[in-house]
Amino acid sequence: MSKKGGGKLVRAAFQFLKKAHKRPGGRNRMSGERLDHQQRGGITYSKQHSSLTMTGYHHRPGGIDHYGRRTTDVGDRWDNGVYSGKVEIQNPSPPPPWIPKLTTDGKSTFFPDDWSAERIDNATSDAFKNSTSRNPAKGTWEGFSDGVWIQGRYDPSTGNIGHGFPSGNQQTGRP
């Protein structure tokens, strides 16, 4: 896909996220803040690593990184369009100029490039609502929607979804 076409998809995703920014979360619907975390990522301080780390970031509309994000070392690719890659986010207060993701070997899994932000939001909600497994002790869940295995976190005390991302195991025929 051309950069110009990909740019349209990035703008459309940004507009969707902007509209959803202040929406509250609910049982099966991520809050606007968690939706932004899922799709564009953010920066947080990691006590485990004693440094800043990138979090989230699971959507590259048209295969184009959102502004201030970059993906390298694209690795695993599955037939359903899900793939993984090493990710970094631009540091608003350098140095360093870029902040890597320090968990999951620095990788994020990505929803298919041709999926809109809204489709990802709906698939995540659907996968959570019909999840095949939930672990209240860890606050984790896993489900399937629109041909993609999705996993994430939820609040066991309320049953509300936190966020979701493509599983790193997209093999067909999984339980």
UniProtKB/TrEMBL annotation:
InterPro entries membership: EndoU_bac
Region (Disordered): 17-42, 59-79, 85-104, 152-175
Protein name: Bacterial EndoU nuclease domain-containing protein
A Pfam family it matches: EndoU_bacteria
Molecular function GO terms recorded: endonuclease activity
Composition bias, Basic and acidic residues: 30-39, 62-79
Bacterial EndoU nuclease domain: residues covered: 45-167
Organism: Glycomyces algeriensis
